[in-house]
Design brief:
Blueprint: H1 2-10, E1 17-21, H2 28-37, E2 42-47, E3 66-69, H3 72-77, E4 81-83, E5 102-109, H4 114-127, E6 132-137, H5 141-150, H6 152-157, H7 170-178, E7 180-185, H8 196-204, E8 207-210, E9 226-228, H9 238-242, H10 250-255, H11 258-266
Parallel strand pairs: 1-2, 2-3, 3-4, 5-6, 5-7, 7-8, 8-9
Length: 267
């Protein structure tokens, strides 16, 4: 068993923290055993999926000292869950201003309804003479045919050459995103927590166009920097792209860095 092999390797060590992210398959019994081995450790769980999408998580709640979720609603509904958004890695942070090659850029996996939204946005951008570049990634050609089989609209409109089956290297992704005046963010329709892309764009000092209406509740929201669109009928306001961005306070940005995130989680 996977977890049993880990327990056998670490049971004679000493840890201050046992930090588990997303708790996909771990059981309460394994956590109880970890507590026997590390009685003085603080047990921490962080969820970067909404808890209603992970039904087994609630059975683990009693096993942790601190539980954090990237989803604001998770924290509102559960008194023992603390709200903590995601973060950006230092690779994205910059003090420079990079020239824009495109008005709008999207780069991401072509899951759920993303392809449909991107196609609508392309039409909207073309009608308003807004330049647009999209990099849509799928893990394999098999995934493309699977989505064709399950989604009539995808089957009708999505051509295989619209997708890359090779992911961008991080350095290439950062270079690509630096070339956009605004970066498009499309969260999964069953999620309300902000994506990591949101915070990467903040680090890059770029504007954000997002389908996530909950972003207006965050302390970094500024209408000059962030524009919310309806995923069923995305409308792009050209004026948003022309209005100068409002710089964010560096202390505020630090809270959303990986270092700031870890300091908060580990207190």
């Amino acid at each position: 068993m996977y977890y049993r092999s880990i327990l056998n390797k670490i049971k004679n060590k000493n840890y201050d923290f046992v930090f588990i992210v997303n708790a996909e398959a771990i059981t309460p019994e394994i956590i109880d055993e970890l507590r026997i081995y590390f009685p003085s450790a603080k047990f921490i769980l962080y969820m970067w999926d909404s808890m209603h999408n992970k039904k087994t998580v609630m059975a683990l709640v009693r096993s942790f000292d601190n539980i954090y979720s990237f989803d604001r609603i998770d924290a509102e509904k559960n008194s023992n869950v603390k709200f903590r958004p995601l973060f950006f890695c230092d690779d994205y942070k910059t003090e420079q201003t990079f020239p824009s090659k495109y008005d709008l850029i999207f780069a991401g996996t072509g899951h759920a309804d993303r392809f449909s939204i991107i196609e609508k946005m392309k039409d909207e951008a073309e009608s308003k003479k807004i330049s647009f570049y999209a990099f849509l990634y799928l893990h394999s050609r098999l995934m493309y045919f699977y989505q064709c089989y399950n989604d009539k609209e995808f089957r009708t409109n999505a051509k295989i050459n619209s997708f890359s089956f090779t992911p961008l290297k991080k350095t290439d992704l950062i270079i690509l995103l630096r070339g956009g005046k605004a970066i498009i963010d499309i969260q999964h329709p069953n999620q309300i927590g902000l994506t990591m892309r949101t915070f990467e764009v903040i680090a890059l000092n770029k504007k954000i166009i997002t389908t996530n209406f909950d972003i207006v509740n965050y302390d970094f929201f500024k209408p000059e920097n962030i524009y919310v669109i309806d995923r069923s009928c995305p409308v792009i306001e050209k004026d948003f792209l022309e209005v100068p961005s409002v710089p964010l306070d560096e202390e505020l940005k630090y809270q959303y860095s990986l270092e700031g995130w870890l300091k908060y989680i580990l207190e």
